[in-house]
Amino acid sequence: MAGGEWLDPFQYLTIPIQEWVEQGLDWLVANFRDIFQAIKKPVHVVLKGIESGLKAVPPLILILLLGLLGWQVGGRRVGWIVVGCFVAIGLMGVWVESMTTFAIILTCVIFCSLLGIPLGMLAARNDRFDAVLGPILDLMQTIPSFVYLVPVVMLFGIGNVPGTSGLVRPGTDRACPPRPVPARRAALRENGWACS
User: Fold this and answer.
1) DSSP 8-state assignment for residue 179
2) What region, left, alpha or beta, does residue 159 occupy, with left being phi > 0 and alpha being psi -120 to 50 degrees?
């Protein structure tokens, strides 16, 4: 070692984690492509169905329907806000792109509910499952969504389905009911909130 090279050993001592991860992902894609395509298919079908349905409805009728829905759910003020927002989207010339984004969000809501609600109910009924699920959800909430997109894009390719999965992960965290303290969990079970 010439000069002060010994002061910087990281020039020649490294752990090739990046290469290991790339080799692992390449192996996963090569050996489990059919499984990943099978996982992708239902999300793609639901997403395309919602997207084509939203794009098939004329904008003014969809604005009217969504405004009425907002009015029924949140009152007259919410209805007018919904109408105003969708009119603004149309006036900006991004209606088609917005319907694609809206379809992605609706698809995420469906899959978050399908995953999160049963997981939350099972966690409310089973202390062991809750003890395992709780730290996993806590960890998932601390990791940004974009961190999940890198392996998802490598496994599923680029497109709306990987984008949907990037939203399903944090949505599933929030679809699970909050984890109550043990005393409250027992009270929830006694009152039927744990679906027992």
Assistant:
1) -
2) left
Question: Measured at the alpha carbon of residue 185, what is the angle toward residues 170 and 172, in degrees to the nearest 5?
Answer: 10
In this structure, the number of other CB atoms found within 10 A of the CB of residue 86 comes to: 21
The answer to whether residue 158 scores a pLDDT higher than 50 is yes
Quote the tokens at residue 49: 């169905």
pLDDT at 88: 96
- DSSP letters, 6-62, are GG-GGGT----HHHHHHHHHHHHHHHHHHHHHHHHHHHHHHHHHHHHHHHHS-HHHH
Coil, helix or strand at residue 166: helix
pLDDT in tens, 44-62: 899 999 999 999 999 999 9
* 3-state SS class at 158: coil
State whether residue 143 is helix, strand or coil. coil
Say what the pTM is.
0.70
